[in-house]
Design brief:
Elements lengths: L18 H31 L8 H19 L1 H9 L8 H34 L1 H7 L2 H18 L8 E3 L9 E4 L5 H47 L3 H15 L8 H38 L11 H28 L2 H11 L11 H15 L2
Antiparallel strand pairs: 1-2
Helix pairs in contact: 1-2, 1-3, 1-10, 1-11, 2-4, 2-6, 2-10, 4-5, 4-6, 4-7, 5-8, 7-9, 8-12, 9-10
């Protein structure tokens, strides 16, 4: 009988991926970049928009509060950075501190979204009703609107102080925790897991995004219609209407500029408006939808317990992307605009604007451009 020989084939053992360790390494890198750029950018935004001249513009008030809310939102994310980089689980020390962190995180993340929506609405009013907007779009009204937002968000996120979340150390417990107390508070657990994610998605993402999209589309339509009338029906009435709009925005009569210059300003404004909506949606929608799917769909998968580390890893990455939104607003809304760059440089170099009789018209036009750009 013929002898059959077989070559021994080495079998490589499969080593499962440690998603927890991988998430810690990637999270440490991402958060380090976010903090390096975000805190610096938000501080520079505070300096720029807090100067005396910019505080008189309603749009600058929204951008000023936006930089503050972004800074606080980034500070609350330090909780995750310490866990990723140094394995410091702060929730094991105090459940009350965890409740406060979660409350302020959600309030100021939501406030950031509504500041952007308020900014879009402010600019929409300036474009839709330019004559009446001079009385409506004031710094005082902008502060009132932001205060209403803040109080509403504090009220709707107040449930994070419920006893249904977290438990302090004591008795047989050597560490605290910040999880839901499912057995003790089943009603709150159902609300937190099933109902609240949908409410949070609407408040944090859906409604602000709808406002931004509607306002920006309407603004672009009005600007194009005005440009069309100017190009094809450049009558005296049209010129007067455009002049009135510019006077309402700046409070002064600007110098007439070539049509190509106006087109350049419109293109810049349209590009920034488009970037505003795209960046907001790309950074906030994925984690919001994934969280709902994780709690209501993915958790029912038969292999969920086995692949739980993988699903948590995906959530951590999407959460880090969301926090990048709070670190890039200054660069997106300010430094990408030539007009805001000039205002920023003027602020940090402490330049004074010297106005004389020969510079009144030029200064008026410069202020008009600043107001236009601040509405973006």
């Amino acid at each position: 009988m013929m002898n059959v020989t077989t070559d021994s084939i080495p079998i490589q053992s499969f080593v499962p991926t440690d998603y927890n360790a991988l998430g810690n390494r990637i999270g440490t890198i991402i958060y380090s970049i976010i903090y390096s750029l975000g805190f610096i950018g938000n501080i520079l935004a505070l300096i720029t928009f807090s100067n005396h001249r910019m505080r008189h513009i309603s749009s600058s008030i929204f951008l000023l509060i936006l930089s503050i809310s972004d800074t606080v939102a980034l500070m609350t994310s330090l909780w995750f950075f310490l866990a990723d980089a140094f394995a410091i689980q702060l929730q094991n020390y105090s459940a009350l501190a965890c409740r406060f962190r979660t409350f302020f995180a959600y309030v100021f993340m939501d406030l950031s979204s509504w500041c952007i929506a308020g900014l879009a609405f402010d600019r929409f009013l300036r474009t839709e009703i330019p004559l009446r907007a001079k009385r409506i779009c004031t710094s005082r009204n902008a502060l009132i609107m932001i205060l209403i937002f803040f109080l509403f968000l504090c009220g709707i996120n107040g449930h994070y102080f419920s006893a249904g979340i977290g438990q302090e150390r004591g008795g047989n417990r050597t560490t605290a925790h910040c999880l839901e107390n499912r057995e003790t508070y089943p009603n709150y657990y159902y609300f937190y897991k099933i109902i609240w994610p949908k409410i949070d998605m609407i408040i944090f993402c859906f409604l602000p995004a709808c406002i931004m999209v509607f306002c920006n589309i309407r603004i672009i339509y009005i600007l194009r219609r005005q440009r069309h009338h100017f190009e094809n029906f450049g009558t005296e009435n049209t010129s007067t209407k455009i002049t009135n709009i510019q006077q309402t925005l700046s409070g002064s009569i600007p110098i007439k500029k070539p049509l190509s210059h106006r087109k350049s300003i419109e293109r810049q404004m349209s590009l920034m408006m488009f970037a505003c909506v795209v960046v907001f949606l790309c950074t906030t929608v994925p984690v919001t939808i994934y969280l709902i799917l994780l709690e209501q769909v993915i958790v029912n998968y038969p292999n969920f317990a086995q692949d739980n580390a993988y699903y948590v890893f995906i959530f951590r990455m999407l959460r880090a992307i969301m926090y990048s939104h709070f670190g890039c607003n200054f660069y997106l809304y300010c430094l990408t605009s030539r007009i805001f760059r000039s205002e920023f440089i003027r602020t940090i170099t402490c330049r004074r604007i010297v106005i004389n009789s020969n510079q009144d018209a030029t200064t008026s036009y410069t202020l008009n451009k600043i107001v236009d750009a601040s509405n973006v």
